[in-house]
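Exercise 7.
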Amino acid sequence: MIYLIVIVFQCFYLSFRSNTMLTTLYAINLDASTFQIGIIVGLTSLFPMLLSIYIGQVSDRIGFRYPLMLGSFGVSIALLLPYIIKGELYILFVSQVIFGLAFILLLVNIQNLVGKISTIENRSQNYAIYSLGLSTASLLGPLITGFSIDHFGYNNTYLLLSLLAAVPGCFILLNLLKLPERVAVNEITSNSFMDLLVSRSLRKTFILSGMILAGIGIYEFYFPIYGKHIGFSASMIGIILSVNASAFILVRLFMPFLIKKLTEEGVFRICLFIAAGAFMLVPLFKGFISLAIVSFIMGIGLGCGQPLSIVMAYNASPKERTGEVLGIRLTVNKIVQFSVPIIFGSVGAIVGFFPVFWANALLLFSGGLFSRLERTESHQQEES
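Solution. The predicted structure, written as tokens, is:
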């Protein structure tokens, strides 16, 4: 079942992983400022930031079919708009708002779906398989998008991604993908989501997840701008982003082994330190090969962050509130993803590239220290 889900949603994730790169480069082509690009990219996270918790609660109550269909077709429509209305910057603002709203419908539910079809014994493995599918999309998406832009243009690339995004919705609409039945309403608690936020284990997971997503978000948003600044073509930028994604695949293949040796939190902490070091190196290089190597190292650091944070959040969730917990996690992530492009788009336009990459390196390094301090304090409390 997990393999079928990953294969079906692979097409959707190709569109998702390509959207930021395509939209950023298209906005640059339309002479948008760095600040305008930051707002456009940030708008993708606006509705997810506001609605993830509610959508998670809905996922626990009504099941997966309709949210997944709406999410797939909604993203497809969002990506179709720049193809229909060509050469207008304003349509990117509209497109990204719709993209974010539709995407969060799908993302919360697909993450919850993977957890629902899993047992405690194979949950980490299933999320690793799911993440490998996402990593493969991250590898192929920028590569396909870069070459498509260079050979067919921005608008036709939007059309291609729109068609890919609609594939899961078509499978579900035609009942080609069997989904678990919804949970009975009387089994679901009515407690406020605030009681989940005060949980120590969940709170730590939310914070660390936000930090790792900040790193991924800044790199996906800011590296295309940096690449354009130093004279790279869209294909070259796509290759370097794909190299980053190839490291995601590699590290996630070894993730079950690493978890057995170091625990989930231990692996997470090491990944934060590796990613911090890579961010320090990015603005020091301008060569294609050197940046590809740095991108690969960064991928090793960032690659385990997402699946581990999902597993940690799901395992710490109260029964029948898993969708809500994943929604809270995504809310924290989207607050970060909403603010990061706007803040760093403005800062980058003023101070340049070094402070942007190095500030994120400091953030990730602080996250590693925070994880270590939390672990030490938790052990001290247990011993007392």
